[in-house]
Amino acid sequence: MSTIGKLFGRSPFSQIQLHMEQVNKCIGKMSEALDAVKAGNFESLDRLSSEVSELEHEADQIKADIRERLLKRFFMPIGLPISTTHTLVGAVLGVGLARGINALNLKTMRNIVAGWAITIPAGAILCMIFYFILKLIFIDSGWAVGG
User: Fold this and answer.
1) Nearest C-alpha neighbor of 76 from the set 29, 146, 6
2) Any residues with CB less than 8 A from the CB of 137 and at least 6 apart, and which?
3) Cβ contacts of residue 59 below 8 Å, gap of 6+?
């Protein structure tokens, strides 16, 4: 595969088409479920609702796979770390901003930003604490590991 091909990787369109087919199956089952309601056939409605739920779950998995691949494909080759959670929150924020600042819950946004700011230093501090505890137990106490 060429360098440009490696940058962009596999086309997402086959996955998008697979998602559309899955959604189409779900719509077909929903049509059957509505027909069952109209006919008063509630026994088959239970079965159909389970099938719709399973089809929706499979479609959601395909959609999550598409999202994850697109993120990795565009950001990892240039060395940027990625977090799907941060990206999804950013996407929701972008939609809210497109609707106007009043569409955003600023208190929630403040909490999210504070969480982002706290996560990295808190993770570093916890790693340091665990490192020193394990160092005291295994190295400084003379309790040799593996020998």
Assistant:
1) 6
2) 143
3) 19, 22, 23, 26
Structure tokens at 63: 């959609």
Cβ–Cβ < 8 Å for 40, 73: no
Taking the domains of the chain in order of start, what are their residue ranges? 3-122
| Rounded alpha-carbon distances, angstroms, from residue 135 to 62, 84, 122, 126, 145 | 44, 34, 20, 14, 11
Q: Which residues does 22 contact at the CB level (< 8 Å), separation at least 6? A: 55, 58, 59, 62
Q: What is the pLDDT of residues 51-66, one digit of tens each?
A: 999 998 898 888 888 7
pLDDT in tens, 63-94: 888 777 776 666 666 666 667 677 777 777 88
The CA distance from 76 to 82, in Å, is 7
- H-helix or E-strand containing 39? helix 13-39
Q: Contact, 66 vs 82, CB < 8 A? A: no
**Contact by Cβ (8 Å): 58, 22:** yes
